[in-house]
Amino acid sequence: MGEEKTKSSMPHSLILDNRKSLSISGVSDVDSFDEQSVVVYTSIGELTIKGKNIHINSLNIESGDLKIDGSIDSLFYSENNSSVGKGMFSKLFK
Predict the structure, then answer these.
(1) What are the pLDDT digits (tens) for 45-83?
(2) Measured between alpha carbons, how far is 49 from 33 in angstroms, rounded to an integer?
C-alpha cells in the first residue's frame, strides 16, 4: 500500500492538561491539521485530535514530540492494520 508511517521503537504517551494543552510523544509524522482537527501518525497508530481553535505549538519529528493548544474535545486512535485507509465498502465486503 505505501510506506508505513508508524515507528514501533519510539515510546508513545499523551499528557492532556485541562483539555487546553496536549503533549504527545512517539509522533512520526503529521498527516493533516486545521483549527478543528489534527491527524498524526504515532508509534502505536494514527491519532486524530478534534476540538476548536487548535494550534500546533511545536513539532520535533526527530524526538517525536508534539505540543498542541486549543479546546480539545476528543482523541481517537484508528485501527493499526491493513484495512486503514481503504474505503468503507472494502471493509464491508471482505
Answers:
(1) 999 999 999 999 999 999 999 999 999 999 999 975 444
(2) 9
Q: Is 67 within 8 Å of 30 (Cβ atoms)?
A: no
15 forms bridges with which residues in the sheet? Answer: 23
Partner residues linked to 38 by β-bridges: 33, 49
How does strand 65-77 pair with strand 45-60? antiparallel
3-state secondary structure of 80: coil
CA atoms within 13 Å, Cβ hemisphere of 30: 20
Q: What is the pTM of this model?
A: 0.74
Query: What is the C-alpha to C-alpha distance for residues 24 and 27, in angstroms, rounded to an integer?
Result: 7
Cell of 25: 510523544
